[in-house]
Amino acid sequence: EKVEGYLDIAANVNATLFSCIDINPKDGKISREEFKAFVVPLGVTCEDDVKFAFEMIDKNKDGSLSVEELSYACARYYFDKEDSPCKHFYGKYDG
Hints:
By secondary structure, the chain is mainly alpha-helical. It has helices at residues 4-21, 32-39, 47-57, 67-79. Helix 1 (4-21) packs across helix 4 (67-79) and helix 2 (32-39) packs across helix 3 (47-57). It is globular and about 30 Å long.
């Protein structure tokens, strides 16, 4: 099943999520610290898991997450049926 179709459906939700994570400063990109502040309350408390998840989402390896990278990772996390790097959105996936 193709993920691309789901990106259109989820675009508004992901843009809202992105703006909630991108807070300090509100600069249009998510730093690793901002990402960590988002995932720790969700139960990702191991620094290695935070780092691993961030690096899986940061496709262009520039050290920050764009709205496109976050949207793509969210869609893949929820809609991929098989294990993929985006299944590690909240740390290492072992399911």
